[in-house]
Structures are given as C-alpha cells and as structure tokens.
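Supplementary Methods, section 5.1.

A reviewer requested that the exact input to the structure prediction be made available. We therefore reproduce it here, unchanged from the version used in the analyses.
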Amino acid sequence: MRSLPLPLTLTARLSPVAVIACAGWALTSGPAAPPAAAGHQTAQKTPAGSSAAAPSSSASGTKTYTTAPAPCSGVPAATVKSLVPGAKTAGKEIPSTDTALRRTCSWNALQGYDYRWLDVSFEIRESDQEAKKEYEQRVAEKSGGGAVPGLGDGAYSVVNLTTEDKQQTREGVVLARVSNALVVVTYSGSDFETKKAPGTDEINKGAIKAAKSAVAALDAGQG
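The structure derived from this sequence is encoded token-by-token as follows.
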C-alpha cells in the first residue's frame, strides 16, 4: 500500500508532545454547544478493570466525586474497536499534574487510509456548583451543536469540519457534567484517499457513544 503524506495538523497529533498539548487544551477549554432541540443533527462549521471515581456525601446529601476514574477503562474494548479500528484497546493515558483531579486517555489509529482519534477526559471540581459554572461557560463558548438528552446532569455535543491542504477532518466533542465531575470526549476522523471526512452523524453518534460509556464508568462509584 502506498503511503500518503499526512496533513500537518494530523501529523502533529501523532507525536506524544502534541498529544499532551491537545489533551491540555481539551481539559481547560473543551468545547461544547448551546442547547438545541432533542434529536438534533449537529451543525457543521469550518473552523474525549476500571476503578470508578470515589464519591463522598456533602452536607446536603448530594454525592460528589473526590478522584477521577481510570480513563483508559472508561470505554469498553468493543466500543474502542468500533470507533477506532486498529487501535490498541488499552489506550494511552496522558500524563497529568494531578491524577486525582484530572485524567485523560487517548486512542488513535490509521487503518488503510482511514484515520480515527478518540480522547476521553475526566475532571473533578471542588463542588457541584463549580463544575456547573465551568460547564455552562464552556457551553456558552460554542455554537452549532445541541443537547444530549439523558446523559448526566447535562450534556452537549458539537461537530466541526476543518480543511487543511484539501484534506478534511471532522471532529465531534461531547461535554457532560455529573455532580462535580466533567467528562469531555473528543472524536475525529479523516479519509486520506478521498480527502473527505466521515459524516457528521457518524462522528456525532460515535462521540456520544463514548461519552455514555465514560459517564457510566463515573456513575459506578455512586452505587
């Protein structure tokens, strides 16, 4: 099979240093979108053996989390295989300055001409109120997406299309809040033979599927 040159942005994503940088951006400014009608199709624009998080009870009786779960166990192997064909299902955890409060796992693979990338991040805030404020700020920063019903205490998704050197890349981001925890999922794809990107629906549904698994892993500590 002949090899094809990767666009600069995707080449950078394959380097460990760039991976850490990308994860840092996702954790500090992970995009989401304002509310839209349920069942929406997100808009395109040219321009995420597990140990569950440990919950603790507040004075009001609301459970809040004290530690982030193991991120690479947050998505089942079968889901990883379906979303990122050819990737090692174990994933790769990105170094964090405080693993109790912030953890990220990445999966990526180039199979044939098809490239897929998946990031899943967990962030633990000091309180439900702080997490809600952060969540709402991130939602307000983006447009063109919509609500994801029934996921955590609130969830939004947005899909973006970018083009570099005639190569398209489509990226979906889902941001969910569960009590004082934030879950950020980023899922992207490209086809280096056709220069086209996967469809909006495929990327959006894939990101939401991974987000549901990640939230379930977080919720496991609430039982």
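The radius of gyration is 17 Å. These observations are discussed further in the main text.
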